[in-house]
Amino acid sequence: MNPLPCFKSTVFKLLLPLLLLSAATPSHAQTNSSRSLILVIGAPGEPKYAEAFANWAGLWQAAAAKGGLQTFVIGEDTNQPENDRQRLLDLIAKEVAKPAGDLWLVFIGHGTYDGRSAKFNLRGPDITATNLADALKPCRRPLVVIQCASASGPFLKALSAPGRVIITATRSGSEINATRFGLYLAQAIADPDADLDKDGQTSLLEAFLSAARRTEQFYKEEGRLMTEHALIDDNGDGLGTPADWFRGVRAVKTAADGKAVDGVRAHQMFLVPGATERQLSPDARARRDELELKLSALRLQKAKMKEDDYYSQLETLLVETATIYEAKPQ
After folding, report:
1. How far is CA 298 from CA 162, 195, 266, 271, 294, in A?
2. CB 204 within 8 A of CB 269
3. Residue 252, C-beta contacts closer than 8 angstroms, at least 6 positions apart
4. Which of 28, 29, 243, 325 has the fewest CB atoms within 10 Å, measured from its CB?
5. What tens digit of pLDDT does each residue of 32-69 get?
6. First and final CA of the chain: distance in angstroms?
């Protein structure tokens, strides 16, 4: 007997109170000292880029305020601007020492690559992918690094590790033209229109997909050769996945070696959490995330499993996930 109708009915009954609660409960931003955003604004080079980068940074600051994050900005201090790299390294050291809470780093600016080393251009000495990897090595917090610069692709492999989400505006160091991906990502990160699964919040994955597709649309409409191809890595393999591998929020392609593709962890990260997400305790959220990762792994194995075994395990995971959402906030 196929258990599919049974688990559909069970999950719907468990999720119905959640859906009603989500629709009725307003979302109020509260400053959470354990969640933080470091915005790094690089050397603009030209006035038009200075204006653009300030605009992108303003969008991130507004979204972070709505999400209740502590925000720190590197690149606006008029006193000794040549010290930006040391300011950044000092701030990272302070933040990675904290025991918990999301840490987001967003780099807005230009980058370079000489065939060996990728750099993000600061006012003063640049910071390399290796510099940043060394600074972040002690980090045990959930970490998001978003590199919006040109030639940012090598940062993905350098920074990739379990428990991290890494996004780059380019897929390699050879894509050296100024990027537009950063603008679209800043616009999407708190935009309800980017919420693909309509759960009342825009995940980092959803924002990435929206930004990547709007970037592609820009080049098509302008009749230009596309000079930037964004990647996302959240499984720690350092390979990255492009947006065109996804349909909705699920990847529909798989790596040639059979490894899991990216996206599940990024879909669990929200700069501005919705009302239901805010009500989950840290323990409940951690268990929910673990179950979603197991669900993703199970789906990859579906073709190799007996149908009854697959649906039995699927039901177990979905019912426990629904139970987490149904539980009253502590």
Report:
1. 19, 25, 18, 28, 6
2. yes
3. 245, 246
4. 28
5. 458 999 999 999 999 999 999 999 999 999 999 999 99
6. 39
